[in-house]
Specification:
Keywords: Metal-binding, Zinc, Zinc-finger. With 114 residues, the chain is mainly α. The chain has a single domain, classed as Four Helix Bundle (Hemerythrin (Met), subunit A) (Up-down Bundle). Helices cover 57% and strands 0% of the residues. The chain is built from four helices and no strands. The structure holds zinc ion. Zinc ion binds at residues 82, 84-85, 87, 102-103, 105-106.
């Protein structure tokens, strides 16, 4: 048996695998939810104008874009890998945030820079 020093290959979420299928289901559910929220926010405004709507619309649109990008990464077999350090993003994090692009460490680094 030869020791393999390569960690974090994209094997787990390779296209066609069970993990990839589950991730896709999570992402598509998330996309449906966000799209439904978007329709509600963009819909005809009855009654009082909602002053927080423009900000929420922005956030929703950005989230939908991130979901699309995550679906694209899934197709390419790059899903679940941190864009900052290239290490696999912990599964628990992906369950909560299926479109996460960074691991917790890199996410905090990003936030610190902003
Ligand atoms: Zn990272």
């Amino acid at each position: 048996m030869t020791a393999n020093t390569v960690h974090g290959t994209s094997g787990e979420y390779s296209p066609g695998s069970t993990a990839a299928r589950q991730a896709r289901e999570r992402l598509e559910r998330e996309r449906r939810n966000r799209a439904a929220q978007l329709i509600v926010l963009e819909g005809p405004d009855e009654g009082q104008p909602d002053e927080t709507a423009p900000g929420r619309l922005d956030t929703l649109r950005r989230t939908l874009e991130e979901i699309e990008e995550a679906l694209g990464r899934l197709e390419e077999g790059r899903y679940g890998l941190c864009e900052g350090c290239g290490k696999p993003i912990p599964e628990g994090r992906l369950e909560i945030l299926p479109y996460a692009r960074f691991c917790v460490v890199c996410q905090q680094r990003q936030r610190g820079r902003a």
